[in-house]
Design a protein that fits this description.
Order of helices and strands: EHEEEEHEEEE
Shape: globular
CATH architecture: Sandwich
Number of strands: 9
Mean pLDDT: 89
Number of domains: 1
CATH class: Mainly Beta
Oligomer: single chain
Low-confidence stretches: none
Number of helices: 2
Distance between the termini: 17 Å
Strand content: over 45%
């Protein structure tokens, strides 16, 4: 089981944590919502709990809870800047469909 980061995503997390002055890494999760059933949840991790799995990639710690990992195992996280917009993007090999807006997915 693994979660990976592109270099732009890793750089974004490193820079943000440095400017924030605290945190152990990036926390990824999934919640039930949207027109397709699930949506990604992205936060910065301040701690690691017993229910978490921890991955290291490109010098960044990625924290994922066990339940979410079942749905996002193998996902690559990218960070995209398009004009004034910037966001994390996900390449999840487990999805069977996405909504048109890209905010939710199904497995």
């Amino acid at each position: 089981m693994t979660i990976s980061l592109t270099e732009p995503a890793a750089e974004r997390v490193r820079n943000y944590l440095e400017s924030r002055g605290s945190g152990v890494g990036l926390r990824l999760g999934v919640k039930k919502t949207g027109c397709n059933g699930f949506a990604y949840v992205v936060n910065y991790a301040d701690e690691v709990t017993e229910e978490d799995r921890v991955f290291q990639d490109r010098g960044v710690t990625v924290v994922v809870d066990e339940k979410s990992l079942e749905l996002i195992d193998g996902t690559e996280v990218d960070f995209i800047k398009e004009g004034l917009n910037e966001a994390f993007r996900f390449r999840n090999p487990n999805i069977s469909g996405e909504c048109g807006c890209g905010e939710s997915f199904s497995v």
